[in-house]
Amino acid sequence: MIPAPIVDLVSLSPVIVLSLFAMGVLILDLFIGKDKTVLVFLSLLGLFLAAVSSLAKGTGPIYSFSNSYVVDTFSIFLTFVFAISSALAIMLSVSYNKEQGIKIGEYYSIILFCTVGMIVLASSADLIMIFLGIEIVSISLYILAGIRRTEKRSNEAALKYFLLGAFASGFLLYGMALVYGATGTTHLKDIASVLASSEFKTSPILLMGVVLLVVGFGFKVASVPFHMWAPDVYQGSATPVTAFMSVGPKAAVFAAFFRIFVEGIPNISDYWDTILCIVAVITMFVGNLGAIIQDNMKRLLAYSSISHAGYILVALIAKNSLGMSSLLFYMLAYAFMSFGAFAIIIILDKQNGDNLEVKDYAGLGFKHPVIAVCMSIFLLSLGGLPPFAGFVGKFYIFSAAVKEGYITLVVLGVLNSAISFYYYLRVIVYMYMKEPEGDYQVQPSLAPFSLLVIGIAVFGTIELGIFPGPVISWTMN
Amino acid sequence: MGFLALSFLGAVLDKKQVGLVACSAVGLAFLVAFWALTDLMNLEPAERIGHVEVLYPWITSGKFHLDLSVLIDPLSVFMLMIITGVGFVIHVYSIGYMNDDPEYSRFMSYMNLFIFSMSVLVMAADFFFLIVGWALVGLASYLLIGFYSEKRSAVLAARKAFVMNVIGDVGMVVAAYVIFQNFGSLNYVDVFAKAPEMYLPNSDAILLITFLLLVGAFAKSAQIPLHTWLPDAMEGPTPVSALIHAATMVTAGVYLIARCSVLYELAPYTMYLIATVGGITAIFAATIGLVQNDIKRVIAYSTMSQLGYMFLAVGIGMFGLGMFHLMTHAFFKALLFLSAGSVIHGMSGEQDIRKMGGLMAIMPLTFISFLIGSLSLIGFPLTSGYFSKEAIIISAWHAPMGNIFFWGLAVVTAGLTGFYSFRIFFFAFMGKQKDPNAHPHESPVVMTLPLMILAFLSLIAGGLGHDVLEFLSPVFGGHVPPHHEDGLLEGITLTLGAVGVIAALGLYLTDEERVKFVKDMLLPVHEILYRKYYIDELYDFFLVQPTKAIGKFLEEKAERQGIDFVVDQVAEKVKETSEGLSQWQSGKVRVYALNMVGGAVMILMFLVFY
Asked: What is the ipTM of this complex?
C-alpha cells in the first residue's frame, strides 16, 4: 500500500497565499473599471504576505509531501528575492502600462502566478516538482511576453519563446525521465544516495539524461549555445516584462539547476563540471562580446544578462557552501541593479519604442543629472565596480570558485568583467560626454512608482555593496 | 570620550564658508582636547596609556582586523592640544590675513581639512589610520602650498612637496606591510606589546621597520636628504607656513618616532642614524639660513634646523625632551611666522628683508612679538626656547647615547641661530626705511591678538618643562628623563648664541661697507650657502632629468608603438568578433532550434570522447 504523503500546508503557505491573491486579482478585475491601480496594491500586498509567510517554518530544512517539497534557507531567501523582484516589476508596470495602452488586469495576476511557479521551483526537492515549477513559470512568461497583443514584435517574441521553450521543455523532461530510468527515483536525495554507490555512475542512460538536463536548463537560463531566444524575446517584450524575465524566473531556474546538480548528482560531477565550465566560459564571452556592438539598450542588457548567467554558473560549478551563498547573494544584487537599469530605460521610453538607442542617452548627464547618476551606478555595479553590490557578488562567486581550484575559470571570468566595462562605460560616456544629435527630446516620465523602484534599486545596490555583511551571513546559514 | 572626540572631527570636517565657523570648529576641538587632557591628568600615570576607543569594527577578513578607533593617551592628547591650540590661534589670525582674498572660504576649508587630517594622524590607534592621516595631511599641505594657483612657483612648490611626501608615504606603507607580516597586527597596542619579546635589539626586522618608518618621518619633517620641499613651501600663504610648515605638520615625523619609541629603543643603530641626521640637518639648515634674503625662507630654514634638534633629541633617546621642544617650537615658530606675516601684510606683500627696515616704530606690536620669538628661538635665558633647547644640547653630551660630536653640532648651530635670527630682525625693524614707495602699517587686531597670545606662551611655556616630561612619561616607558646640570656647557652655549647676535649686530647695524667687505671675502662660501649646497641642482641632475628621459623614451617607443598598437588591435578584433556573433543571431526560429540540437550533440560528443 502506498502511504499517504505528509500534507504540510504551512510549508506551502507562500504558494497558497500567492495563488489566492492571484485569483483574487483575476476576479476583482471583472468588477472594477478601467483604473487598475487597486489591483497593483492588492498584488503588492499578496507578495508581501507571501514573503512573510515563508518564514513560518523557521530556517531548518523541513521536508514535506513525501520529501518532494523542502523549506530551507535557500528557498526562503529566494522567496524574498522573488517577492522583491515581482514587486519591482509590478511597480514598474503601472505607468508603463498606462502609456503603452496595456489595460489588462490579468497582467498582474499572471505575474503573481509566475511567482508561485518560482517559489515552487526554489523549494522542490523532486524532479517532478521541478518540472511542474518550470512549466508554471514558462507558461506565465509566454503570456507575458505577448502581452502587447497589437504589437508585432511582441507577438513574434511570444511565439519564438513559446516554440523554443516547448522544445527545451521536451529536452528537460526527457532528461529527467532518463535520470529516473537510471536511478529508479525522482527524489533528489535518493538520487544522490543511489549514485553514491559506484556501479551506476557510468551508465550511458544517466549521462544522456544529464546532457539533456544541461540543454534544458541551459535554455531556461539563456546560456550559450541555447541563448539565442533571449535577445529577440527581451527586445520584443514590454520592458517591465523584460526586466522581470531577466531576474526572477532566471533566479528560480538557477535554483532548480543548483538543486539537481549540486544536491542530486554531485557524485558524477566529474562528468558534468567540465561541460558546465565550458558552457559558463562561452556564455560569458558570447554575452559580453555580443553586447559590445548593440545599439539598442534592451538588447544590450539582454546580452549583459546572458553574460551574468555565465557568472552565476561559476557559482554553481564551485559546488561548495560558499558557492551557494554567493549564488543567493548575486541573485539579490542582480535583482536590484538590473531592475534599476531597466527602470531608467522605462522612464525614458516613449511609445513605439523610441529613445531605446544608446545614442538617445547622449547629454542625459547634463539635462537630468540625477537620473544619469543612478544609471551610472547601476551600470558600474553590473560591471562589478566597488563599492556597489555587483562587485561584492562577483567577488564572492569568484572566491568560491578559487577555493575549489577553478583558477582558469576565474581568470576568464575576471577578464570578462573587464570586457563588460566597455559597453557599460559606453553608455556612461554617451550620457556625460556626447552632445545629443539635434534638439534634446528625451523627456523622462517621472511616475511615482517608477521613481520608487529606482530609489529602492539605488539603495539596494549601494547598501549591498557597502554593508554586505548581514545578507551574506543570512545566506551562509 | 572617543565619541566626543570624533564628533568634533565631524564639526571640523564641515566646510563652512565663514571664518567664524571654521574658527569655532577648531576652538571646539581645542576644548574637547583640553577636556581629554584634564581627564587624563586625573588618572594615575600608569593608567593613562592604552585607552583605545573602538568606534566601529570596519573590516574583518581572515586574520586582518581593522577597527575605526582612536587612541587617547598622553602623547596623542599632548599633540592634539598643540595642533588645535596653535591651530585655533592661527585660524583667528587668518581671518585678518586672508581678508582680502577672494578665495577666502576655500582657504578656510582647506585649513579645517588640515586640522582634521592632523587629528586623525595623532589619534590613530593603528598604523593604518596613521597612514591615512599621514597621506591626508600631505594632501592638505599640497592644496595649501599651491593655494595661489595662478602663481607658477607656488604650483611647482606644491608639486615638489607632494612628491617628497609621497616618497615618505611609500616608506610608511611598506613599513606597515612589514609590521603586519611580522606581528600579524597593525594595532599599536599589539605591536608594541609584542615587539620587546619577539626581537633582540638591532635584529633585522626591527631595523628594517624603523628605517622604513624613518623615511616617512624624514620626508614629513624635512630632514636631509628629503628636505628640499620645505623652503619652497613658503610660497603658500603665511598662516599656512605658520600652521603647517612650522608648528604642526612637520613635527609629525618627530611624533611618529616618539610614538614608536618602543620599536626605536630596540634599534639603537637607527637611533644613532636619527641623531646624526638630526644634528647635521640642524647645522646645515642654519648655515643656509645665514644668507637667504626672503624673510620666510630664513624662518623656514630655521624650522628645519630646529626640527634637526628634535630629531637629535629623540635620536639620543630623550623622547620627552624632543616633544617638549616640539611644543615650545610650535609656539615661538608660529609666533615668528605670524609676525613675519604681519610684516609682509603691512608691507603689502614684500618678503625681501633688504627692502624693509625701520619698522620698529611703525609696527610696535609686531616688533615686540618678533623680538620675543627671536629671543626664544636663540634660547635667551628664561624664554621657553631656552629651557627646551638647552636641555637638548646638554643631553647631547650627557645622555647615555650622547657624545661630543652631537654636542658640537648642536652648540655650533646655536651660535648660527643667534646670527641669522637677528640678521633678519635688524634688517626688518632697525635702521632706516629703504624702500621709499612702501607705506607700512600696523596690522588689525585679529592679527595682533594671536601674536600676543603666542608671545605670552613663548615666554612662559618653558616653565612647564617638568610637567610636560612627567605627563608624557608613561608613554615612554614610565621614566622621566634625568635632568642634567652642567654650568660650563650651558655657559658655552649661551656665549656662542650671544656671539652670533653680536656678530649680526656688528655687521648689520653699522654701515653697509662692512657687510660688503665680509661678503666679498667669503664669496665662494656665500655662493654655496646661497645656492643651498646645490642640493636642488643635484636632484635635478641625478633624478629629475634621467626620469624625464626615461619617461620620454617610454612614451615614444613603448607607449605609441607597443601598448597603443596592441590595444587598438585588440579592440579591432573584439569588434569583429562581436559583429560575427550578431550575424549568428539571424532571428529565425528554426535556426535557433537547430542551434540547440547542435549544442546538445556537441555536449554529447564531448562526453563520449572525454
From this structure: 0.78
